[in-house]
TrEMBL record, chain C:
Residue intervals of the FAS1-like dehydratase domain: 13-137
One Pfam short name: FAS1_DH_region
InterPro entries attached to this UniProt entry: FAS1-like_DH_region (IPR039569), HotDog_dom_sf (IPR029069)
Protein name, as recorded: FAS1-like dehydratase domain-containing protein
Native source species: marine metagenome
SUPFAM superfamilies linked: Thioesterase/thiol ester dehydrase-isomerase (SSF54637)
Length: 213, 144, 150
């Protein structure tokens, strides 16, 4: 099963794509013979428990799940399986939040936090580890493939993965419609909801892939 | 530029462009001079000022980039009416580098209520790095 | 949503509409704008001699948007400012000789982090009307302040 684990809709300040347009584009990709089963909306610094894409998703047989991309003191993190407890414990809009605390809270309350684009300057996990930041023993995965990477950022992510033995996810980091699905994560098992997603990410049964040409 | 492109001719997923070009120092000076009779050195016209502001070289003004981005749509056909363009600058754009502008149709009103199309538009450098991204809304006439 | 907590600026300006000027758009300005941006469309350039009926390219308002002096929000952050993004909604054609008046208001201020570290964004909405009080363009602009690259 192929899911794009990193996408932004117009709820994020720097995205220009609506969720409905993403759904249409997934169907365009399918008509062109590409495989994509769904995507996770990871809006910047926010999470809305009330937004429900179930009907939109089921109309087209597309899985639409919700997560978030949070700014932290150790770079950006993708967060999946966000529960009321997690949003009660953390201020998602705090751009200086402790990444270690974020990881710990997610570990405690059924979520998972994964460093996004770890090879990116300024907001990538690798740079912080290089500068001597320690901890994060429970992190087992980072984002290996990111569709918005600049030259060198993917290579730095690969070096980190190799050095630490991490697993790697894939996501497009789409901010416009036609970018969705460029990078994705291939799961061995079917994912139907956020808790399935967290379970499979924790079990490590996935690989990062690029959209086949 | 295509002649007489009509709404019925276009499908979601259709490519627009690409257009390849670069923006020269002279282009930028000409652009800035539309507004300023006497040009004062700035990050747009002077490498020295750009260096002082932490940039490696002079950059193309944002409003000029938007004008260039809009052209990928208005140059598609003489029948295009641009209703909206909305762009995000992801990186500064230096003068005198190879730029590729491209677009793709991402949405089409199939209800018959309007002839609007939504398009993604992108400006990339020669490494494929997206310097400016955005969307445009255009209208095309119905076939006579 | 994003927050502006902890950012020091003049919050009294949020949502307050301010007139920022009246501008006459000459034929020469339109032709200069079109030429400098590499336009080839005769709709904006006229005939080979620049004569004939023309309209302004759809982003012409930027000639004025970038030059206006907006109210100072007294933002206490960052060493340098950049234009971060813009939306232009084209509501009516703009022609040579049109006199445009513009009003603007501060819509939002928020903070995020990126490749250059912490950044503060200020979003302005500007409306352009012509001499007949017809709205010709709605412009939303985002400006970012950050520290210089080291």
């Amino acid at each position: 099963m192929l899911l794009d684990l990193h996408t932004h809709s117009v709820a994020s300040d720097d995205s220009r794509a609506t969720v409905e347009q993403y759904v249409k584009w997934v169907n365009v990709l399918r008509r062109k013979g590409k495989s994509i089963d769904g995507f996770v909306l990871t809006e910047h610094r926010q999470f809305d428990h009330d937004v429900d894409y179930t009907s939109l998703a089921s109309d087209d047989g597309i899985i639409i799940l919700k997560g978030a991309e949070l700014d932290t003191d150790t770079g950006h993190f993708l967060v999946y399986g966000i529960s009321e407890e997690i949003t009660d414990e953390l201020d998602f809009s705090d751009v200086n939040m402790s990444a270690q605390n974020l990881v710990d809270i997610c570990d405690t309350y059924g979520g998972i936090a994964i460093p996004a684009h770890p090879g990116r300057a300024g907001i990538g996990f690798a740079e912080y580890l290089d500068s001597g930041v320690t901890g994060f023993e429970t992190i087992k995965s980072v984002e290996r493939l990111n569709g918005s990477n600049r030259p060198g950022e993917g290579e730095k992510a690969e070096s980190l993965i190799k050095a630490k033995g991490y697993l790697g996810t894939g996501g497009s980091d789409a901010h416009i419609v036609s970018a969705i699905g460029i990078c994705m994560t291939s799961f061995d098992k079917e994912i139907k909801n956020e808790s399935d997603l967290v379970q499979e990410l924790r079990n490590g049964r996935f690989t990062a892939v690029r959209l086949e040409s | 530029m295509k002649k007489n492109l009509y709404f019925e001719d276009v499908e979601i997923g259709d490519d627009i462009g690409p257009i390849k070009r670069s923006v020269t120092d002279e282009d930028v000076i000409e652009f800035v001079s539309v507004r300023e009779k006497e040009i004062t050195p700035s990050r747009f016209t002077s490498n020295e000022v750009a260096n002082r502001e932490g940039m490696p070289e002079a950059i193309v003004p944002g409003p000029m980039n938007i004008a260039l981005m809009s052209q990928i749509l208005t140059d598609w056909s003489d029948t295009v009416c641009l209703l909206k363009i909305d762009v995000v600058f992801r990186q500064t754009v230096p003068h005198n580098i190879d730029l590729t502008f491209s677009g793709i149709v991402t949405d089409k009103d199939e209800t018959g209520d309007s002839t609007k199309l939504e398009c993604d538009v992108v400006m990339e450098n020669s490494d494929g790095v997206k310097l400016v991204i955005g969307t445009g809304v255009i209208a095309l006439p119905n076939k006579p | 949503m994003t927050t502006d907590e902890g950012i020091v600026y003049d919050r009294s300006l949020l949502g307050v509409e301010t007139q920022i000027g009246t501008f006459e758009l000459t034929r020469e300005m339109i032709l200069g704008f079109a030429k400098s941006t590499g336009e080839t469309n005769p709709r904006y350039l006229g005939d080979d001699n620049g004569a004939g009926d023309i309209v302004a390219p759809p982003t012409i308002c930027n000639v004025f948007v970038s030059g206006v002096s907006r109210p100072d929000i007294n933002l206490e952050f960052g060493e340098i400012g950049f234009f971060a993004g813009q939306s232009i909604e084209c509501k009516a054609e703009i022609r040579p000789g049109d006199v445009l008046s513009a009003s603007t208001k501060l819509d939002n201020v928020y903070v995020k982090t990126g490749r250059s570290g912490k950044m503060v964004f200020a979003v302005w909405e500007t409306q352009f009307r012509n001499q007949d009080d017809v709205t010709v363009a709605l412009v939303t602009e985002s400006f970012v302040r950050r520290n210089k690259n080291r």
